[in-house]
Amino acid sequence: MRIGFIIMTRRIPVRHTLFIWMATALALTACAGSPAPAPAVTPSPASVLPGPVAELAQLPETTDVTYLEYAPPRPDNVTDAAPSGLHPAKMDEAAPAEVDATEMDAEIEEAKTITPTRVITSARVPILMYHYLSVPPAGSDKYRLDLSVSPANFEAQLKWLKENNYTTIRLDDLYDNLAKGTPIPKKSVILTFDDGYRDFYENAYPLLKKYGFAATVFVISDYINSGNAGYLTWPMVTEMSKAGISIESHSRTHLDLRGRSYDKLVWEILGPIEAIEAYTGKRPRFFCYPMGYHDETEIRVLKSVGTLAAVTTAYGKTHTLDTAMLWSRVRIHGTTTLQGFASLVGD
User: Fold this and answer.
1) Domain boundaries, the chain
2) Which CATH number is associated with domain 65-70+98-345?
3) How many CB atoms lie within 10 A of CB 132?
4) Mean pLDDT rounded to a whole number for the chain
């Protein structure tokens, strides 16, 4: 029975799988008089596919191996294992917004069949990668120091962008430029912030509003659910989304998702998308790979739930539609000077 059920679920859209699991569990309970066992989510050797997809070419001098091994501090009450009976993320801080699922599905299908109105082979747009927007506390390790941009330095960078006539666009704008030929400003830049730290709301968000700039925050949904003071809350996410900040997914628990089972990938990828959609009314269409790692199975699952593009930690400024699931970025370090910032953003 269990084997037949797994085969059946793989023939339907991924986004409905969770609900079929729940319905099946209830049916088994009613028939057997005892709780149905939870679906297994532990990867097996058979579920591990060959090596990861090759990343976009990157400049040798910018390769950052130590960053790829970094993971943000994990709240104590966040676990890797899926709870018994797969279900969407808990939503215990605010009433979810009403979302028209039929309309969202139609938009996803339309995006898959876009015909460009003019040929755009590539776009040179720096996608800047930030993490902490605060002064690191005393005794911080090398990772915290390197990943922390002070509010003063960040404002200096925003001021430089404004004075040099740069326009902040969104990942949607870059994708539409490549897929539809939609024009974007010549001097465009995209600001992205990984992990969903609280200091984004406290320090970066006010400065972005001050300068009228757009930005994208990649959040880890279970870190928000944990209530940890170091991360955003759902009310903060809702407020910023209404103000124009793009909220996208960085997975459920920030695990290396290579070689994971199908069930585990659904748990880590679909749950956060539905949670963000419920709170913001906007379905995430972009993904940030935890620690920059990815493989073919993960990419297939991302595409199956309507993901248009995903960003890596590889260095680069030029993007194409064919490599939309492997877009490169430009990392901003805590030690990046204003002169260095200008060099990274410019051609």
Assistant:
1) 2-40, 65-70+98-345
2) 3.20.20.370
3) 27
4) 79
